């Protein structure tokens, strides 16, 4: 994976760090994204081991979807009131929900996120499709920038600024990962994809036999 990072650095220089898509502005409903973050934090605190187990699986599998639904069901009973001020379902895509949980699991670590990601650069984690390969490349190659994104509040100006170098690296990272088709995503989707990929990289780095 050292070669992948080197290829990315060369590609960035050749491409002038041109973004693969127009960068996304702050979400139209910041309150909804902030509530989802609180929801994810509650899930990560209540069910850390089960959340880790589910998010380590192939997100294309039925087992993953079933596990995520069970986490969501538990959260509806125990987290919705604290997160959104009322009981009931927190409506979100699987990706954004998984990303919120993953990011909050990462934040439970003692060491800074960028340090943990830097140490995970050579971690042998499975790759689940092109978007996951892209997210892993970004997480391995730009640990400081990924950590800055996670440190920014959802739907904030700080998040928008932190996302800029990551959007700029999509095209060269796609090239480094051998992805031929153009990949486009919103800022919330990219953040969620990075969180799930980063969690699996860090978990494999810190618990290689797990």
Mean pLDDT: 83
* Percent range for β-strand residues: under 5%
Largest sheet: none
Count of alpha and pi helical runs: 12
Structural shape: globular
Helix content: 55-70%
Q: How many runs of DSSP E, i.e. beta strands?
A: 0
Write the element-wise H/E pattern from the N-terminal end onward. HHHHHHHHHHHH
Structural class: mainly alpha
The overall number of domains is 1
Roughly how many Å is the radius of gyration? 16 Å
- Termini separation comes to 20 Å
The stretches of 5 or more residues where confidence is low (pLDDT under 50) are 1-27
Topology:
Layout: H1 2-15, H2 30-46, H3 48-55, H4 62-78, H5 80-84, H6 94-106, H7 113-119, H8 130-141, H9 143-151, H10 157-168, H11 170-176, H12 187-206
């Amino acid at each position: 994976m050292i070669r992948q990072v080197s290829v990315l650095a060369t590609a960035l220089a050749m491409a002038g760090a041109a973004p693969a898509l127009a960068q996304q502005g702050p979400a139209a409903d910041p309150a909804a994204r902030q509530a989802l973050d609180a929801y994810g934090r509650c899930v990560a605190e209540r069910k850390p081991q089960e959340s880790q187990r589910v998010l380590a699986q192939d997100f294309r599998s039925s087992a993953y979807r079933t596990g995520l639904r069970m986490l969501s069901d538990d959260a509806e009973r125990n987290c919705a009131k604290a997160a959104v001020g009322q009981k009931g379902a927190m409506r979100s895509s699987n990706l954004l929900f998984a990303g919120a949980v993953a990011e909050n699991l990462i934040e439970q670590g003692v060491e800074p996120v960028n340090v943990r990601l830097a140490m995970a650069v050579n971690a042998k984690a499975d790759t689940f499709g092109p978007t996951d390969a892209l997210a892993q490349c970004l997480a391995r190659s730009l640990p400081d920038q990924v950590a800055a994104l996670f440190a920014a509040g959802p739907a904030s100006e700080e998040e928008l600024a932190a996302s800029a170098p990551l959007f700029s690296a999509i095209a060269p990272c796609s090239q480094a990962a051998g992805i031929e088709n153009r990949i486009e995503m919103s800022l919330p989707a990219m953040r969620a994809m990075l969180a799930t990929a980063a969690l699996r990289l860090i978990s494999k780095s810190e618990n290689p036999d797990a």
